[in-house]
Amino acid sequence: MLNPECMRIVIIGSGNIAHFFTPRLQENGHEIIQIFSPNPENAKLLAEANNIKHYTDDLGAITQDADAYILAVKDDALKALNEKLRFENKLVIHCAGAVALDIIADISRKTAVIWTLYSIRKNNLPASNHIPLIVEANSDEALQGAEILANAISDRVLTTSFEQRQLLHLNAVLVNNFTNHLLAIAEKLSGEHQLPFDILKPIIEQTFSQIQKVSPSESQTGPAIRKDEVTMQKHLALLREHEAWQQIYKDISTSIQQTIKK
Amino acid sequence: MLNPECMRIVIIGSGNIAHFFTPRLQENGHEIIQIFSPNPENAKLLAEANNIKHYTDDLGAITQDADAYILAVKDDALKALNEKLRFENKLVIHCAGAVALDIIADISRKTAVIWTLYSIRKNNLPASNHIPLIVEANSDEALQGAEILANAISDRVLTTSFEQRQLLHLNAVLVNNFTNHLLAIAEKLSGEHQLPFDILKPIIEQTFSQIQKVSPSESQTGPAIRKDEVTMQKHLALLREHEAWQQIYKDISTSIQQTIKK
């Protein structure tokens, strides 16, 4: 039987998520009984930083005596772990937003995902208790265990289906990776025209503080929604040496006009 | 001769920019001697809110006795003003980021632009003194006058060429209008999948606070830059009913891969 107040956990991995989860789980009453990392130095560093006695770089030396195993590894390492690890009917959790649960189906019959919908960097861990965690599990029992752990890490836990989780992952790409690329284009164009990128920072900040007050669908402005073809043609001319960026300009402008029309 | 400590100014327009510029110019020693708006009620409201005695809705009643005329009107109203207004050799300033200076060439021989690189809303005027203003002028004399006024409004004034100003306008579209559209897509997709848009707000905020510390070119993450084709195909499949959004996904992913390669 699980003790929801104190679960005994093995952390497999020593990267950003391992650094984030380990102290938070400890602070909330759970016991990290072992750290595994293929890099022995990293296993030791993470263990010692959190007063954890047992650590190893040997997959075969991972204890069977835990309630839960958190696989905090890169997406493409999960498949190899699935071939090598067996924890019978223990709760096994992976942390990869875009990866299906069944990638770890051979490790245990009780599997779940806890995915952090935020970019975690071990050298700058968030202080907030509201970092969103997305939970999915393959059974009610697995869900119960995963939710106990997720709630120990954050007070913003959302349980979803696999399709919903993939959609959230796509949305994270749109609002983080893609918006960042638009900023990077603006930065490069600024450099090409001897302009300081800094001068754009107030309007960048404004764009994203605006969503705290108004839905982005309702606050759309700009030449596309005004159907200001003259300005749009000028902008495309400025991008004449950047075909890929011209394409983005055209497609987002088209999408703004279509999306608002609906 | 201009008195740089106290210029006598007519504000033509009663919208967001007129509401922003009027009190700031007054607070910094300049005198607003008249307000014009085609809507008499709006002219009166702006004048009375700022203790300005003279206001009118009659273009013909605008005094010739000012040092500078600020045309704070919509882009497409400038052409009509150019046909109707004549202020000899007085400083005449328009405020439209994407519009060339010569659109007001018939009004005066001394013309300039003061463009606010920020979205100003009269009901929520910024308190900051760092709202970027972009200045351009058709002569040294016009530039001197425009810079006096711009510096009275903000301590973040940048003088540029027309090409640079257009580029900044394009950049503002990229970092404001286009990023906002990506957020709007994520919001709509969330709704379609019964997910709260709110759960994305921490990562949205993270994206844009990140640029205070790291150049966006250097902080690019996501499936495109990792060349994670499996995840990208899953995301495109999730967008199968939204052709325009699929196109944006493909183009930005391609551009991320090309831009970083360079």
UniProtKB/TrEMBL annotation, chains A, B:
Any Pfam family the entry gives: F420_oxidored
Domain Pyrroline-5-carboxylate reductase catalytic N-terminal: 8-95
Lineage top rank: taxon: Bacteria
InterPro entries: 6-PGluconate_DH-like_C_sf, DUF2520, NAD(P)-bd_dom_sf, P5C_Rdtase_cat_N, TM1727-like_C_sf
Residues annotated as domain DUF2520: 131-255
PANTHER family noted in UniProt: CONSERVED HYPOTHETICAL ALANINE AND LEUCINE RICH PROTEIN (PTHR40459)
Official protein name in the record: DUF2520 domain-containing protein
Organism: Taibaiella lutea
